[in-house]
Automatic annotation (TrEMBL):
The gene is pckG. Pfam families: PEPCK_GTP, PEPCK_N. GO terms for biological process: cellular response to glucose stimulus; gluconeogenesis; glycerol biosynthetic process from pyruvate; oxaloacetate metabolic process; propionate catabolic process; response to lipid; response to starvation. Residues 238-604 form the Phosphoenolpyruvate carboxykinase C-terminal P-loop domain. Residues 20-231 form the Phosphoenolpyruvate carboxykinase GTP-utilising N-terminal domain. The keyword Metal-binding applies. It comes from the Bacteria. PANTHER family: PHOSPHOENOLPYRUVATE CARBOXYKINASE (PTHR11561), PHOSPHOENOLPYRUVATE CARBOXYKINASE [GTP]-RELATED (PTHR11561:SF0). It catalyses: oxaloacetate + GTP = phosphoenolpyruvate + GDP + CO2. It comes from Mumia flava. This is Phosphoenolpyruvate carboxykinase [GTP]. Its EC number is 4.1.1.32. Monomer.
Length: 613
């Protein structure tokens, strides 16, 4: 067994409570070696991972990794929030008593690191010095070197973040064990995987995966689930699955900030890395603050809602990322960036990577190419058109590599939020944008956010899989309380952000094409929204919010048909009336939902009843 004190002494880790925690888990896991890591260890760890075959070279200063084939995404059904109060159980958080889950996980982790190294990763989820610092510190313990390398890219890592805590005990205890992936019974009744956040004890215990959201505990488990819980328990902030951008208007010299919740794989990274369309690029510039998580609070001095991105990097979807859709994403993983690609296609001879949509066609010469499972493309049976890359293949890169990163992305004081938007993949009914000026209606809109059910067979036709504020997989306490907390936090601002629902994904029912070109063009409805907030345009009132008129929306250079434009700028009253029934059922599941939310629902329903066809 390792000597934890020796490892911590030599790394200069002095926080007595962290030392106690490391000793405790070193004993339970039986680790042979302990290594305390800092960001400065990156080059050495990369070299070790290359040597061990855990990473492969992907061109100058870039790396490739392949997962176990059943371990390629978060597993919502194996994810649990455990606390000591049954009242914390909600519709989506999969609540269990902490007294049941802690011993179970401890049992799985006991002896799991015999013969292995336990890496100790002290981290900070926030730019240092922010008003939310007390919620941002954590120490992840992991048995997996590539998890360390991802954490160094995705969070600020080093002993300096834990040594001088005002309260030495105020850090999240985040324990991760990958285990023996082949023998975990993925998807069987005997599934051994457990991803547990013991929220009221600020302890995270994840067993059975080395995939991003399951293994980089600073990100999803701490940055979202734990932060959402802490923000509520302390009545002080919101932790949300939000992107965060700046929009600079060079003509007026003003910069606006927009935060937005979109369910997983619904366009946050793409929106945050957006390049203004050519026709607007001289005047507007979009800057990147964050693409997956934002923490929001109210500044008592200015009365504004402020937001920051607690992360230090991007863990982005590779599929369909190309020069046209998202040049900034492509250049954020250029040679020399230290980027890591996971589960894309790889050519060891040329060290190239490829994914569906990177180019219109896959490389014509398939010599040397391996699909994401490591099988040679050249050996495929004729007609085998399985994707080369896993649909959830990802790239990992630090924020500083993102070409449009905001100059002040590292500023701990946060940025004032002008607008909060929600959007999901909705093939009909939802227009391009509808603005909402009332707080309760904005929160109601977030709570009824949804995306198309992935499998038609699972859902009622036209019914969404609701994903409140895009937090369904990350919800850590009961939804009624969650809604009340939103009203409380944003309601404390003296300058309210404007709300909006956006939809880039409406389709033509006949041939299925996207009615709106999306990607870079998405700036246009956002500019309209900010003009509406400034009183520069008035829009058109409807039962479900204010829509832009065609004249108000700057469409210079957009190629869109008359039929498509009419469809995305109008309301289908019949479909909306049907939707209100689904929403009612959805909201009824939440106990303790504030009256303001029900009143908002009834106002919208009544307006729809009164609306013309
Ligand atoms: P997570 O990292 O899972 O939280 O996802 P995300 O919300 O950041 O989604 P991301 O930006 O990675 O986009 C997911 C997929 O949606 C990608 O394949 C994109 O190409 C596609 N996508 C993003 N924006 C648009 C758009 O405006 N229009 C269309 N048609 N597709 C888009
Ligand atoms: C998501 O799934 O929403 C992500 C990626 O942002 S991860 O949670 O890491 O899978
Ligand atoms: Mn996400």
């Amino acid at each position: 067994m390792a000597d934890p004190d020796k490892a911590m002494d030599s790394a200069g880790l002095t926080n007595p409570r962290v030392r106690e925690y490391v000793r405790h888990w070193a004993e339970i896991t039986g680790a042979d070696r302990i290594e305390v890591v800092s960001a400065a260890d990156d080059a050495r760890l990369v070299a070790e991972a290359l040597d061990a075959g855990e990473l492969e070279p992907a061109g100058e200063g870039r790396y490739y990794s392949r997962s176990y084939h059943k371990d390629t995404a978060r597993s919502e059904e194996r994810t649990i929030v455990a606390t000591n109060d049954p009242a914390d159980a909600g519709q989506y958080n999969n609540w269990r008593p902490a007294s049941e889950m802690k011993p179970l996980l401890e049992g799985k982790m006991r002896g799991a690191l015999v013969g292995k190294t336990m890496y100790v990763i002290p981290y900070l989820m926030a730019p240092p010095g922010s008003p939310l610092d007390q919620f941002a510190t954590g120490v992840e313990l992991t048995d997996t070197r590539t998890v360390v390398l991802h954490m160094i890219r995705m969070a600020r890592v080093g002993v300096e973040f834990v040594n001088d805590l005002a309260d030495p005990d105020s850090f999240v205890r985040a324990v991760h064990v990958t285990g023996e992936l082949e023998s975990l019974g993925h998807g069987t009744p005997d599934d051994q995987r457990y991803f547990v956040t013991c929220a009221d004890e600020r302890t995270i215990l994840h067993f059975g995966s080395s995939y991003g959201g399951n293994a980089l505990l600073g990100k999803i488990a701490h940055g979202l689930r734990q932060a959402a819980y802490d923000g509520w328990a302390s009545r002080s902030f919101l932790g949300e699955q939000f992107m965060l951008i700046g929009i600079e208007d060079r003509q007026t010299g003003r910069t606006y900030h927009v935060a937005g919740g979109f369910p997983s794989a619904s366009g946050k990274t793409n929106l945050a890395m957006m390049q203004a369309p050519d026709a607007l690029g001289d005047r507007y510039h979009v800057t990147f603050y964050g693409d997956d998580i934002a923490w929001l609070w109210v500044d008592p001095d200015s009365g504004r809602v402020l937001a920051l991105n607690p992360e230090y990097g991007v863990f982005g979807v590779a599929k369909d990322t190309n020069e046209a859709t998202n040049p900034n994403a492509l250049h954020s993983v250029d040679p020399g960036t230290g980027a890591i690609f996971t589960n894309v296609a790889y050519n060891p001879a040329t060290q190239e990577v490829w994914w569906e949509g990177k180019t219109p066609e896959p490389p014509a010469d398939v010599t040397g190419w391996l699909d994401w499972k490591g099988h040679a493309i050249a050996d495929r049976e004729p007609g085998d058109d399985a994707p080369w890359a896993h649909p959830n293949s990802r790239f990992t890169t630090t924020l500083a590599n993102v070409p449009n990163v905001a100059g002040d992305f590292d500023d701990p004081k946060g940025v004032p939020v002008d607008a909060i938007i929600f959007g999901g993949r909705t093939r009909d009914r939802e227009p391009l944008v509808r603005a909402i000026t009332d707080l309760a209606e904005g929160v109601y809109d977030g709570l009824t956010l949804g995306a198309e059910a992935t499998f038609a067979a699972e859902g009622v036709d036209g019914q969404l899989r609701y994903d409140p504020m895009s937090m369904r997989p990350f919800m850590s306490y009961a939804e009624g309380e969650y809604a009340a907390h939103w009203l409380r936090i944003i309601g404390a601002a003296t300058e309210q952000p404007i709300f909006a629902h956006v939809n880039w994904f409406q389709r033509d029912p006949d041939d299925g094409h996207f009615r709106w070109p999306g990607y870079r063009e998405n700036l246009r409805p956002l500019l309209w929204l900010l003009q509406l907030k400034n009183g520069e345009v008035t829009g058109r009132e409807t039962a479900v919010g204010i829509l832009p008129t065609e004249e108000e929306l700057d469409l210079t250079g957009v190629e869109i048909s008359r039929a498509d434009l009419d469809a995305i700028l109008s309301i289908d009253v019949d479909r909306w009336r049907q939707e209100m029934g689904f929403r009612e059922e959805h909201l009824k599941q939440f106990h303790g939902l504030p009256d303001e939310i029900w009143e908002a629902h009834r106002r919208v329903a009544a307006a729809l009843e009164a609306a013309d066809q």
